[in-house]
Structure formats: structure tokens, C-alpha cells
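Re: weekly structure request thread

Next one in the queue (110 aa):
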Amino acid sequence: MKAIHQLKDDRQLNFAEYSAKLLGNVLRENGIAQQADIITSVPMHKSKRRKRGYDQAQKLAHFTAMELGIKENYRLLGRTRDTAEQHTLTAAQRKTHAEEIYFSLLTMQT
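Done, posted below.
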């Protein structure tokens, strides 16, 4: 837990790099990496990103893309508004929020 908080709040990217290696291994072992064309992340609200200085999910996705040699693109999903921090919500609330606040930027381009 401490490593996750350091990644989120103290810009300790070692945990993201380490996690990406583990994630890369799992994705390769399960044949998922070979099927992936691109890696992205779920966007953080811009106010939280400004406060934190970076998006830790995007960093994890970046290191995972590097680990697997797969393209990365962070402009695939958009966010309509800020919400409560996910760890404060129930699973049902997280699902509802995801359905309400995220949208595909690909559908907007067609």
C-alpha cells in the first residue's frame, strides 16, 4: 500500500516501472500481450492532474507499453467531470461513475 501512495503522491515512479514489468509478464504468459495493438489509461480529472503534477495511471500504462513494445495513446478516453476518489466508493458506485463520466474520443471523431 505504501508503494502505491508513493506513486500517487510522491512521484515515486520505481513502483510503476516494477509493476509494469510484472504486468507485462502476466500479459505475455496469458497470451494477451500478443493480441494488444495499443495501450491506454483511464484519464484523471485535469484538476487532480494539476494538483498531483502527473497522472500515475498514464505512467503505469507508459511503462507497460515500453515493457511490451506496444504503442501507447492517451487520447482514446475522455472524462466529463470530476468524481470522488475511487477508493471511497463501493463497487456499484464505481461502475455507475464509470458509465456516466468516461467517453470514447473515437466515437466523437466519426
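Residues 9 and 52 are 7 Å apart (CA to CA). The first strand starts at residue 38 and ends at 39.
Next request, please.
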